[in-house]
Design goal:
294 residues, alpha+beta, 2 domains, 10 helices, 9 strands, 16% strand
Length: 294
């Protein structure tokens, strides 16, 4: 997949685009576009990366991604394939979708501030998330003026909310070189597809067409972390899902997530989750996993 810069098409009636994605073959590249994007994830086991932030996706995740901010939504490619399809609601809109004069009105000050802060991405939680999720759900069956009214109500709820946090770090600056974006997309796809296997620096560097040292600098520049840290974050995220959704032995889960020994798995899990895998399973209310290797 070569798509890096996306030019999105506006809806013919409302001036913005509403999409509902339901697919077992979901694919989203590492990309950017001039449009702002409001994304409600209803089901997509995996992770999202917005700027230099990587976060495990949970049902109900609601984010606003600003113009030209690189991002990717990635379903976990672990086996077996999930039975439920990916389910995501998306609204894509240009800042000027209601005309430039609209933004000169004093009443739109909060909306202007909202889009300015969205340049780093915003995640919404609490009552705001529930309210906007309902509005986006209602938009599925609406069209024309009704859909426009629902969207403006959602924007007002977001603009007046304090239940939000910036996603990308304050110092993050996107380097929007199409060539480097394509490199990053190839690397992310390679890592995601081989998460249960050894991932060697020289292989990933070769894929990016860089020396190992240059690749390490390149990856840290674009992701805000080293490649081993990134890979371990994805592997621990997969381990959390397996602990929640299966009754497999802890040893089997560690190997299914690409860890070659149990002690390293336990150490990385403890460092990232501040608890052991067994404690994590008990916290979820799942049956206590069998003893290690049993």
């Amino acid at each position: 997949m070569k798509l890096i810069f996306e030019k999105l098409m506006s809806g013919s009636e409302e001036g913005f685009t509403f999409k509902e994605i339901r697919s077992h073959r979901f694919s989203c590249p590492w990309h950017f576009h001039t449009e702002n994007e409001l994304i409600l994830t209803l089901h997509c086991p995996g992770y999202r990366m917005v700027g230099d932030d990587i976060t495990e996706l949970e049902a109900g995740d609601l984010v606003l991604v600003g113009s030209n901010l690189p991002h990717i939504w990635q379903r976990d490619e672990g086996k077996p394939r999930p039975r439920r399809p990916v389910h995501i609601l998306i609204v894509q809109f240009e800042e000027s979708f209601l005309g430039h004069d609209f933004w000169k009105l004093p009443a739109t000050h909060a909306l202007r501030q909202l889009l300015r802060h969205a340049s780093a991405g915003l995640q919404f939680t609490g009552k705001t998330r529930h309210r906007v999720a309902r509005l986006m759900s209602d938009m599925r069956a609406a069209s024309g003026l009704r859909r426009l009214a629902l969207f403006l109500t959602a924007l007002e709820a977001l603009a007046s909310s304090s239940e939000c946090r910036a996603i990308a770090s304050p110092g993050y600056t996107a380097e929007l070189s199409p060539f480097n974006q394509e490199r990053m997309e190839r690397v992310l796809r390679f890592i995601n597809e081989r998460l249960d296997q050894p991932i060697r620096l020289r292989e990933v560097a070769r894929l990016a067409g860089l020396s190992e040292g240059a690749f390490s600098r390149f990856f840290r520049l674009h992701s805000g972390r080293t490649s081993p840290t990134f890979v371990n974050q994805l592997r621990i995220g997969r381990a959390c899902r397996l602990l929640a959704e299966s009754e497999n032995k802890i040893t089997d889960i560690a190997f299914a997530c690409g860890f070659t020994n149990l002690s390293n798995f336990n150490r990385q899990f403890q460092r990232m989750k501040r608890m052991t895998p067994r404690e994590f399973g008990r916290q979820l209310g799942s049956p206590s996993p069998p003893p290690q290797g049993a």
